[in-house]
Amino acid sequence: MPNFSAFIPEIHHGVSPGFVDVLIKTQRAELFTGLMKFCHPSNENLVFAFVDGVERELYRSNQSTTEKIPRSDWSKTLFSSDSSVGLLPLSLEAMRVVQVAHEAPVLRVEQMNLDSLELLDQADKWELDPEPSVVHVHTSQADSFYLCANRSNLVLEEIVFVGGKVQFSISNSSFAQSLPQGTHQVTRYVSVRDHAAWHGYELRMAFMPLMRMLMQRFSELAGRGLTERLGEQLSSWARGGGWNMTFSGNGVINREYFDSVDEAVNAYKDLLGRFQMETGRAIGPRMVENISREVLFKLDASTRELLMHYLFTHYGLDGVVVKA
């Protein structure tokens, strides 16, 4: 997958293991979110992923591969003499894109030079590809990366490296229209859908429309006042679980970074179970099952399949409940 270490500016050179330890402790104290690079004399790059001052992942990267290092191996892997260290602050949203790009396996790599019209045509074709991919577009002004998951989702998450800074945005398959004129160097990392990195990404993207539709449907039945109270209860429950999510009548704002798909599944199931319990008190368990089933069948088939696999047990047409 892409080697993001190339975009991390080095700010310290020839540092000792003791100074590396000081730098790590500094990032913890400053609640740093972003990437911290260690470049060893062997030309090996190690990249720490920090979220709110906590080291979440450690990756080893070179020009062609990136691997996730088990936490048990961090200490013996990290501290060597004469390292160069770099820092790149990122938003939480950008960190989630980097997480997928770092951890998803690569089936094959496609490289091409395309103008904007050709790239627009290719992007439409990539939407039909059954396998997901990470697309890197290099121009004279910037380097852009797009997650293309093809789950009947028109949204593409994008991070752009430009002028020493990183911008996160939401795009779609017409992203080429916003690029400057000229020929672009395009690298497409074709991945494998059946992998935890993509499962976690797709589940996050599916959870948002699910909760938006559930909250809106509950509001139609119970009124705005009860819905606002429900949003406050779910937000409080999320905070109690240590998850950075805020609920309202419009759905959920999900700013949580999960280390694994299992962590995400447990959180979503817990919150959905809480939703069912609280709404059941207001409109009855049977009605909650009805609106859950109604919302699921309004979602596109691939999103529904994903949610049913991870979060729901569906008993024919008689009930939809959160998996135990």
Mean pLDDT: 88
The string of secondary-structure elements, in order, is EHEEEEHEHEHEEEEEHHEEHHHEE
User: What is the terminal-to-terminal distance?
Assistant: 35 Å
Radius of gyration: 22 Å
Q: How many strand elements?
A: 16
Widest β-sheet, arrangement of strands: 1-6-2-3-4-5
Tell me the number of structural domains.
3
Structural class comes to alpha+beta
Q: What are the salient characteristics of this protein?
A:
9 helices; alpha+beta; six-stranded antiparallel sheet
Reconstruct the topology from this structure:
Layout: E1 10-15, H1 17-29, E2 34-39, E3 45-51, E4 54-61, E5 66-68, H2 74-78, E6 83-89, H3 92-103, E7 108-114, H4 116-128, E8 133-138, E9 143-148, E10 156-162, E11 165-171, E12 184-190, H5 196-222, H6 224-240, E13 245-248, E14 251-254, H7 261-283, H8 285-298, H9 301-310, E15 312-315, E16 319-322
Antiparallel strand pairs: 1-6, 2-3, 2-6, 3-4, 4-5, 7-12, 8-9, 8-12, 9-10, 10-11, 13-14, 15-16
Helix pairs in contact: 5-6, 5-7, 5-8, 5-9, 6-7, 7-8
